[in-house]
Amino acid sequence: MWIRRRFLLALSLVILFASLLVEPTVGRAQPPPTKHLFCLQDLPRAVLLGPIPVGCESIDCCPGCPARAAIDWRIRLAADAVEAMVLEFEGLPADARGRLTIEGEGRWLDERRLEILPGMTLVRGFPRALGGRSPVAVARVSRMRSGLDLVRDADRPLEFSVEQFVGRVRVNESRSRYWLVNCVRPPVGPASQDVVRLDNNTSGDNGIVLLDARRSAGCVNDEVLRGSGNVSIGNALSNGVCRSEVVVFSNHHAVQVLPNVTTWTDAAGDLLPVPLVAPWSTPVVIRVLVSPFTTSGGTGKGDIAQDDVDRANDLYGTMNCGLALQPTIIDATGNPNAPGLLTRMCSQAASLRTQIGFDPGKINVYYIADVKRDDAPDQSVRGATCGMVLSSTDPNEWNTILVSTLYEDPETLAHELGHAFTLAHTNANPDFTSKNIMWGSGANRTYFTEGQCFRVNVNSESALNKNGVRTGPTRSCPDGTTSDECPALSLDVTPNN
Amino acid sequence: MRPRSWPSWVGAALAIGWLAGGCVTPTTPAPPPPDRAVQIRAIVIAWLDCDECVDGELAAVVKVGDAAVPSLAAALREGLAPGRLEGLRRHLEESYTRLGDKSAKSRASKDVYVQRYTDNLLALHQVRAAIALSSIGGPDARRALEDAQNAPYRDDVKQSIKAALARLAKP
Fold it and tell me: Based on CB atoms within 10 Å of each CB, which residue in A350, A423, B14, B94 is the most buried?
């Protein structure tokens, strides 16, 4: 009996070991490790990562780092669909390049371009200080695998990272991690597919369609499809027990949410027209208390507020959130109360509302010199959305935003508005990077996800809905909730257009 | 054959040497292990960069304690790392390029736009470094603040350093 048990144990160990040997680590069908989706068709034209500056993130590199030690790059590419990537350097002097040594899967194509093949590449010997501006590199896909099949090669991961080391300490890192998807289903013949038709798309946006429907294999949720006019979706079947919803994101239009779609039949050839409309025109009243309001050189605080609105509009537009801020920028520098209100915290914001002015039912932003923390008045912050800071239910608090002219960055206004639209910080979510606008200690922030834009639009507590800016279905999708009704917060489709 | 043994005076000499060596070893703490160094960098940067600072960023730096002092002192003294500065500059240039009508009467030039936000970030880091140094305390933190007292910082940074030293002076 025990011999049989030992035999079975040995056999199972052999099978386990063999399965480990034959199972590829990249390339097998597996559930997406990330909700950052990259349309396979767009991979060759996109910058995947960059610019990546050569150098440490912090001024001393790391506690105890040797002062003059060189920096080594550990570059990792893991992707089945990609045969090679190129890192294109700018500002790297020839003599510095000549001193670099390469180990692993990389080679110089010319003076500036380093080709990286799948696997690990180590580039040793970047100088810590070159004087002048630091060199940077931009990463692009240079060669797709030959015989690329859009259907077969979809649903695969693509990971690319550059980690910078001083000795054994990682002193900087840049990562991109995508799940490749086939976003386009070209029609193979008349009436062979169902179609979502994007009407009024005069700007030719490459729209993103999120589809919940029934397929022959069962219910599908948040399937991603793209197009600018007729978006072929294959054959969606009659709803049966499945949820049926279409959501359309695009650069220059409001997000369209169509719940309970009853268009689909078991036969192909169904058509769902989706009329695209202008982005939600969102009033924002900005009162500037800090002098000067405007200057001919554009350095006035009112000028800066306009720059910040323009930056926010660029972000909310190009990231597919479908809203357009309509600012009214008021010169409050002449208000006799202004000099006494230049340093405020949210619990003192009532004084701004009463003494400077307030438009109920609209987002009101106050550009003051210094915004303080309510729980630590000796600490300055870049900005604050008072409803969130005070955990308030008062709509006036949620419509009150403070921005510090001393410490704001170009994305501070967009970040604070994100809070007014219900978005929380993303720092604790491993699917986000510090480039996300809602990262609470971010730098060089550049993106919202479609999951965030969805919440900005549909959450009933969003200022868009509470202030009556938007009409359309609402629901409650907290950041941490992913369900049939609420796509993952991190659901992101690249490129955005 | 008996195993070879060292004369007993060798052990005594080694012990004396080790003790003497310990006496002259500088007080600089050993650098943290690589993983810890990466953690400390992330903790310090999160505090220097935070928007509303509602996620316990300062408390985390204070918890690191003395090991964070060199990085904070360097941030106060030298500002942004060259690589970080270059990343910021490129980001600002790109965001400027994406702004609307460049011919708007009151639009700053690209250089002015880049400088404005670079100055803000630099000052924010310095103000935050000063606060964290005074919160951690100790002779190295005090020295970093004292050394910074007369440097040509922005007014708000100078005030912050002064306030930080005043906090340190309190019993």
Answer: A423
Interface of B with A in 82-111 (CB under 8 A): 82-92, 95, 98-100, 104-109
* pLDDT band per the 50, 70, 90 thresholds, residue A24: very low
CB B127 within 8 A of CB B76: no
Q: Quick one: which of A273, A222, A265, A208 has its CA closest to A240?
A: A265
Comma-separated ranges of CATH 3.40.390.10 domains in chain A: 280-494
Cβ atoms A125, A53 nearer than 8 A: no
Task: Determine the Cα–Cα distance for residues A474 and A169; give it in Å rounded to an integer.
Answer: 48
The residue among A307, A316, A368 with the most chain B CBs within 10 A of its CB, best to mutate, is A307
What tokens appear for A173 in the block?
């890192």
pLDDT above 80 for A88? yes
* Interchain contact, A410 vs B74, CB within 8 Å: no
The pLDDT value recorded for residue B22 is 42
pLDDT at A42: 82
Per residue in B73-113, pLDDT (tens digit) is: 999 999 999 999 999 999 999 999 998 765 566 789 999 99
CATH for A280-494 is 3.40.390.10
> In this structure, which topology does domain A36-181 adopt according to CATH?
Lipoxygenase-1 (2.60.60)
User: Could you give the ipTM of this predicted complex?
Assistant: 0.90
Q: Please name the residue of chain A whose CA is at the shortest distance from the CA of residue B124.
A: A407
Q: Tell me the pLDDT band of A216, cut-offs 50, 70 and 90.
A: very high
Chain A interface includes B133 (CB < 8 A) = no
| pLDDT score at A181 | 86
Cross-chain residue pair B52–A440, CB shorter than 8 Å: yes
Residue A85 in contact with residue A141, Cβ under 8 Å?
yes
Task: Give the number of other CB atoms < 10 A from CB of residue A339.
Answer: 11
Nearest CA to A382 out of A411, A339, A340, A360 is that of: A411
Residue-averaged pLDDT of chain A: 90
